[in-house]
Structure formats: C-alpha cells, structure tokens
Amino acid sequence: MPVFKTPFNGYSVKFSPFYESRLAVATAQNFGILGNGRIHVLDLSPTAPTLSQLVSFDTADGVYDLSWSESHDSLLVAAIADGSVKIYDTALPPTANPIRSLHEHTREVHSTDYNPTRRDSFLTASWDDTIKLWTVDRPTSVRTFKEHAYCVYNAAWNPRHSDVFCSASGDCTLRIWDVREAGSTMIIPAHEFEILACDWNKYDDCVIASASVDKSIKLWDVRNYRVPIAVLNGHGYAVRRVKFSPHRRNVLASCSYDMTACLWDFMVEDALVARYDHHTEFAVGVDMSVLVDGLLASTGWDELVYVWQQGMDPRAV
Amino acid sequence: MAMRELVTGGAACAVPGSSSSSSNPLGALANAIIGSSSKTQGSEFLSGFRSANQNGFADAWDEIQHQNQIPPHFDQFHGPRPAALPQPTLDGPPQRVLSSFLHSFVGSSHGSIPFRPTSLPLLGLSDGDKQCIRDRSSIMARHFFADKSEDFINAQVNALLSSLEIDSDARVKGPMPGRFPELEDYWNESQGMVRPGAPAVDGWITEYSQHRAAHGDPDAWAHSFEQQHGANGWASEFEKEQSQLTSIDQMRGVNIPNFEAMEQTRMLAHTLAQNNDPKFQNSKFLQFVSKMSRGELIIDDNQVKPVASGDWAAEYQQQYTGGPSWADEFAHNQAINPKWDFNDLLKLSHGPEQWVNEFSTEREQHGSADDQWVNEFSKLHVDDWAEEFGQQIGENSADNWANAYDEFMNEQVAAKQRSDASRGVYVFSDMNPYVGHPNPLKEGQELFRKGLLSEAVLALEAEVLKNPENAEGWRLLGIAHAENDDDQQLTCNKERISMQAIAAMMRAQEADPANLEVLLSLGVSHTNELEQAAALKYLYGWLHNHPKYGTLATPELSESLYYADVSRLFIEASQMFPEDADVHIVLGVLYNLSREYDKAIESFQTALKLRPHDYSLWNKLGATQANSVQSADAILAYQQALDLKPNYVRAWANMGISYANQGMYEESIRYYVRALAMNPKADNAWQYLRISLSSASRNDMLEACDSRNLDVLQKEFPL
C-alpha cells in the first residue's frame, strides 16, 4: 500500500472531498515542540501503489491540523502552532501561498474543521481555550467561543445541522454549541481526563464520539448524555483522534499514542474491528475517505503517511 | 428531495446521509442549485436547540450565508490577491541535538520511563523557542504520560527543561483542572443535580438553564477553585513542585550518590520486563533506554565529565545508526570509532577486572541468549556493556537485574573515589606515519602553520607519544583538533572544541600547569561544553598565573569560585590594562557563559580592535553572534576569519551553519562542502550537510552525501 515519507513528524492527514486520489498532510518538526512545519499535498497514483507530492508549503512553525475546503477543490485551511490560521490554494505555487494568514488565536491552533453543509465557514480550536468561527472571505473571525477552561483540542461540525458543532477540551468536557446562541448549549463531562478529539456520527446526528487521555473512546447520545452509549477500550495510551466512517453507520476510526490506528463498530459487543500497528511512533492522524468506501489514511511521528484499503495491511507492498 | 437524491445519489451513495455532507462536486452543485434541505430533515432534537432568536447571533450568521449563497467563484475569491503575504522565515534553532533530545523525551513516554536531565551543548535557543518548548512539552506530556501522576509528569517535563536550561515558569499551562478533587466534586455535584430517572427528551434545555442559573455562569467551577486556592492556585502549586524538583537537580549536581539513578533504573527494568511488545522494543525508545543507562554511570561525576559528554555524543550517534529517521543523518561513522567507549573508561579508572568478570561469569551461567528480546536489544550496541545487561534482563527477573546493577553502581562510585584521574582520555590514531620521525614537533608546527591540520594532528601525536611531558606538543595538538573541527562532540552553532582537543589540552596543563595559553584554551573549551565550574576554574587559573594579574586572584577565592567573582576580577583586570586583548577575550567567554551575548560581542569587538589579525577571535565573535541569533553578522565575522586563515575548517563549517540558520540552505551547502573538502573527517559537517540538502529539497544529492562523494558534491556546489 502507498507510503510517503515526510521530513517532519506527521500531525494530520485528510482526504480531499473532491478528488478521490488526493490527500493533504500536516507535519511539524521536532514533534511540534519546536521548529518549522510543512504541508504536503499528495496524489495516489492510479496505476502504481505510490504517493507522489503535488506541492508542499513551508511554515515557520509546526502545522498541527488541516482541513480541505468543501467549496473549492484546491483550498485548504491549516492550523499552525504559532497561533495563526492559514489558507492555502494548492493550485498556486508555494510562492503565491498562503493566500490568507489569520492571526487571532493567542496560542497554538490545534485543529480545524470546514463546515460541510454551509460550506462557507470553518472552525479552529486552540490552546488559548477558545474556538473561532471564520469564513474564507473575511479578514477577521466571525465569532469566538470562549467557555472552555483549558486547551480546546478539537471542534467538529455536525454533518446535518450547519449551525451546530461540538468541541473537546482539556477541561474534561465536551461542549455542544449552536452558533446562533450566545453560549454553549450543552456541557458533557465526558471523561475524567483530558479529551483530545470528538466527531459526529455521519448518519445519526445525535451521536458523538469523544477520545481521551484516559485511553477510551466514548459514544454519546446528546439526547441523554448522562451515560455513554458505548465505551470503547483497547488503546494502550491516550487516544489522539477519532473519526466516524462516512459510509458505515456504526464504524469509526481512531489513532493513539500507543502507535496504533483502530477501526471500531460501536454497536457490537466485540467492538474492535481491526487494529493497524504499522506506525513505529505515535499515530496522531487518521482519516477515512468520503469518496472511496473503506479507504483509510494515517500519519504519525515516525514521519510516514500510509494509505490503505480496510482489510489490507498498510505495510503490504 | 427526489431531485436532490438523483443528483447526489441519495443515501445509498457514498455521500453520507441524504444530503448532509455534499462533499463532491456534483453534490456541491446540487446544493447550490437546490439549496440545502438539511434543516427539514434533521432530527427535531438538534433543531430544537434554539429557543428564540434574542441575541442577534442568528442574524449575523445568516447574513454571512446570504452573502455567500452561491459559493464565490474561485477566481473572484482571491480576486485582487492580498499583496503577497510575507513568506515564513524558516530559521529554526540548531536542529540536530535538539531533535535527538526531544526524541528522547517523547520516547520516554513509551514505557513511562523517568526522563533524566542530560548535559547538552549550547543550542542557541531564543527566548521564544524556550517558551515554545516549555509550554508545548508541558501540555503534550500530559497526553503522552496518560495516567501517570502529576508528580511524575512534572518531573519529566522539568528534566527536559532543566537540560535545555529553560527556566520552569509558573505561567505554563498547568495541569488540567480535572485532576483536582475540588473540580471532580463539582462535576459530581452537577451530575447529581440532574434528576434521577431519564429526563424527557425535551426536558434537558430547561434543566440546563436551571443548572446554569444555579451556578451563575459556565466558568463557575473555575471560580470555585479560585476561591479555594486564590487566583494563582494552580500556578503556585505547579511552582512548588517545580522548585522541589529543582532542588533534586541541585543535589545531583553536587554528586549525591547514585541513589536516584538506581531507583530509576529499577523502574526501567521493571517496565521492560513487563512490556513484551516487540514493537516497543524496536522503537527508538529502547535505544533511549540504552543511552540512559550508560549515561547514568558516568554523567554525574564531574571528574569524568569529558568522557561523560563524549560518551553522550557517541551514544546519540550510535542510537540512530540504522534508524530510518532523519536522525540517521548523523549516524554512519560512529560504529567505526567509538572513542569514548565505556569500556575504555573503566579500564582506565579502575581496571577491567571486577565488573567485567562478574558479568561475564553470570552471562556464561545463563547460557545462550536466543530470547527474541535479547536479540533486539543486543543489536543496538554490539560491543557494549548494555548487551550484557540486556542478557541479564532477558534471563533474569527485573529485580535481579536491578540488584546486579546496584552492586555495580556501588563499585563504580568507589572506583571514582579511588581514581582522581580527572582528565579526559586522549585516543591516538592507529596508523601514524610520523611515529619514528626525528622531530615530530617541528614537523607538526610546520604542518599546522600550513593549515594541514589532519597531518599536523598525526605529527603532534607522534610528538607527545615520544615526549608525553611536552606541554607545547599537547597544546598545539589540542588546537589542531579544535580548528580541524573533527570533533565527536555534538555541539551546534558554537565555537566547537572536540573532546580530543580537550583531552589534549588537559594533558598539556598537566605537563605545565601554569601555561597561560593552555589555561585560556581550557577555559574557552569548557564554556562550550557548558561546564561553568570547570571553565571558571581554568579562567581563574589563567588570572592567578598571569604575571600582571596574579595579585587580583587571591588564593582563598579559588576554594569556591562563583561566576560573579570571576567576572568581577576580569572586569578589574580589564580596567588595569585596557590594552590587553586576552582579558577582553576572557570577558567575552564569560559573558557567553552567562548568555549575555551583547556584552560578549562587545568584548570580542574590543579585543579585535587590539588584535585584528586573530582569526580564532573572529571566529569567536561569529559564534557568539550566531548564538545571539545574529546570523547575518556572524557571516561577516566568519568571513574575516577566513580571509585571515583560508584553511580554517571550523570557520567554513560555522559559516554553513549560519547560512542554514537563516534558511539559506543552498549557500550553507557550499560552505559545508568546502569545509569537508578540507577535512572529510569532520563528521558533524557531513551531518549538517545532509540536513541542508534535505531542507533545500536536494534529495538527489543525498546519496553523494551518504557515500561521502566529495567529487560529485564539489562539482555540484562550487563556492
């Protein structure tokens, strides 16, 4: 299966919502603790199992996350460790990029998510404890959501309601927001340890997954949030990212500091569907293709990006 | 709806939901034409979030959408492009050492192994860099170390920070609030407020608002914490722990017996015994373990410091041999010449007999080592004592191993006490054509003058083999090593002095304890290795033995040297004889120690006015400027040095570093190649070259670099 070596440590990988063979990778030098960053835009070769680089963009600080625009096939938003949010046009050469650099967050920006339904806006979550709402055509953020009491690691739009999103924070809460409301609509004390990631189920708009330093993933129904619907145990260290399948209602992917990526079916008792231990250092980025059923990508601090079909061994040649 | 499904393929198609994420061009088109229908389809529950539009957020939000009802056409979107945003400046700090070190830190989490402070060479980190390291490592450590105690995490982070000489700072984002019992109570309380029994689906909003009303605002819990602890509750607790940790470090500094080290090793052995996952054993983590265990043995004895740091350097290089990561950029050669092998040290300091015997007998008793783990471990360090330990671990219980190690440690402490041989060990070349030369000193001086430094080293080695008491021979040998830049030491961006140079200089000092040049060189070289105490000792010695300044250096001071005293003496000396360039040089060196780079630059500039033709002084100025992140100025200074002495390998390499630090990788490559053409044995320069090649996206030349093909490189990168 295709592998790509990045010079820096991988932080995030995302499939393009427009081209089934394209993906973007966010990387940071020195594990994102200090140094530069680079964004790679990669293409899967239609003939051979290889990934080739279309273009790359350098940044003065690590890139922690990125998300593709849902409205323009070549735009992507990058969350940079220096607190900036940068917009790149992958159709333009590096010298003409970034096309926007937005400086509002006062600390590291840890994640970004593009609104999949309204397609005109995106969210960024930062270690400055805030979430910001932006549109690509405005020089300043539309709104700042400040309620979390510690770093916000992740914010994710609801796939059906264009105004609703959830956020995961080190304050051990998951919060649900409606951008038309002044404050958060719901606070779920989801874990007893920091929550590093969250995602909405793509088929049931009331189901959220949260991933925590406590090594577990919990599934929540926002209509009755006092008890999780399911708790997925199996990772040996903090769970870094969680992502629902765009194709299967009950399936989600996760990756962890235990160096593995896992696939889960949260509705069955033996929830762990597959464990992929191809990374040799922390696995911190995982994504599932919207356009190709079962196509997975992961990246990690071993500086490798893997793309593979569910059921295959990512390392198989 | 039907139309929509036709276009998007509907729920049966790859697009999730009926229309929720129209993540394909057709879907986007469909949504643009037909308009999003999501609001009518979603569950009533989430739609019911909104009570009434009282606050205007909804209007603002809708307004945005109206403006963009149809996604702006692409070209329109970036229409008049904003006057090209400035490109990022890619000036990272010296990367190699830092990267390895951070790797160790991160790797230490794999088995939750205590991370040990290590003495590092100067990295020239800016305050901003340090803040990044401090803040990010504090936050990330709480993720890596998952369920470890707060104390443990703080200890890990503090070890990292103290090694990098970063002040721990209360402003760091402290531990996450959830760990505090008060907050947990709060959460329990808030949970308890919810009525038992499943609330009606639409009841939650009311409940939530009651809840909110009861607590005033969502930050209530934070306030309640503040009330209990005062506004700086977290910060002060954090600080308290940090200061405790600092004091532990200080204890280690004064060489309290290796109790702590043994404790750590016990834990290590324990974890290793527990973790049978071959993946973890293959990880760089294990290599880190090996490094750590070797470091333990020698690192905290100031007396053997040169060996310790040399060992440390070799360690890093060995660790990464074979690793595919970018760290292998500095691997290669170490296996060829592990100069500071631990075995050598032991032979010297107390004879090989006891521990080697002890372990080899045990090894025999335990028979063959075909255990998988052992094999993995042994691969890492083929002729290393770690191998023996590895077998121990493989065959014995962790406790057993720890006991054996304790015994060994005790012996080692005793051995150190017996042996006051505080010098580094000079390692001679195997094949030396100058052995037997009638006058190798004269030959060496001549070669040195011509700038044929590698040859000069050989001739001078022959000289000191012949006349081990010849201080001048040793001194010149030290200088030749230093200038030839063939150090095994991992330092960056610095006037680099090799371990060989230090070892030679120490022998010179032994032969002639009052030699001013030697004392000055030793003072300078210890500044490089960040050994302030040793540096101060030699600089004080220089003053004490100097005919002009001997009166300033009162003997009682020499008992306990403090930076402030020594620098005061030199300031006095500079006032006595403002025309003495040496004093200004020493002041420059001292200011480097205290990181007052501006003053250091000023001192070197003063010295240069008095001694404008001193190439090594220009190099010092350049190195200081580079450290104070004035890479552009540094290049001018290095150029001066090179104009005066075109064969000054170190200055060529330093020039390369300065260009690389400014992101001018192509330029830096040319300078590294030039330096290497003069001294192909300058291992550091090869590694720097490789990094610059990668950074400049010249991966096509990596092979030439790896095979050390200078012909190809020189043709490709002429200067």
UniProtKB/TrEMBL annotation, chain A:
Could you tell me which residue ranges the EIPR1-like beta-propeller domain spans? Answer: 151-264
* Keywords noted in UniProt: Cytoplasm, Peroxisome, Protein transport, Repeat, Transport, WD repeat
Q: Where in the cell is it found?
A: Cytoplasm, Cytosol; Peroxisome matrix
Q: Where are the WD repeats?
A: 102-144, 145-187, 188-224, 232-274
* This protein's record includes keyword Cytoplasm: yes
GO BP terms: namely: protein import into peroxisome matrix
Determine the domain of life of the protein's source: Eukaryota
Function field: Receptor required for the peroxisomal import of proteins containing a C-terminal PTS2-type peroxisomal targeting signal. Specifically binds to cargo proteins containing a PTS2 peroxisomal targeting signal in the cytosol. Cargo protein-binding triggers interaction with PEX5 and formation of a ternary complex composed of PEX5 and PEX7 along with PTS2-containing cargo proteins, which is tranlocated into peroxisomes by passing through the PEX13-PEX14 docking complex.
Q: Which PANTHER family match?
A: PEROXISOMAL TARGETING SIGNAL 2 RECEPTOR
Q: What is this protein called?
A: Peroxin-7
Q: Which organism is it from?
A: Acer yangbiense
Q: What is the lineage of its organism?
A: Eukaryota, Viridiplantae, Streptophyta, Embryophyta, Tracheophyta
From TrEMBL, chain B:
Any one of the GO BP annotations: protein import into peroxisome matrix, docking
> What's one GO-annotated cellular component?
peroxisomal membrane
Residues in TPR repeats: 581-614, 615-648, 649-682
Q: Where in the cell is it found?
A: Cytoplasm; Peroxisome
- Major place of residence: cytoplasm
Q: Which UniProt keywords apply?
A: Cytoplasm, Peroxisome, Repeat, TPR repeat
Leader sequence residues: none
Task: List the InterPro entries hit by this protein, alphabetically.
Answer: PEX5/PEX5L (IPR024111), TPR-like_helical_dom_sf (IPR011990), TPR_rpt (IPR019734)
**Taxonomic superkingdom:** Eukaryota
Query: Does the keyword ATP-binding feature in the UniProt annotation?
Result: no
Keyword Cytoplasm attributed: yes
Pfam families for this protein: TPR_1 (PF00515), TPR_16 (PF13432)
Please give one Gene Ontology molecular function term for this protein.
peroxisome matrix targeting signal-1 binding
Q: Which PANTHER family match?
A: GH08708P (PTHR10130:SF0), PEROXISOMAL TARGETING SIGNAL 1 RECEPTOR PEX5 (PTHR10130)
Which family does the UniProt entry place this protein in? Belongs to the peroxisomal targeting signal receptor family.
Q: What's the protein name?
A: Uncharacterized protein
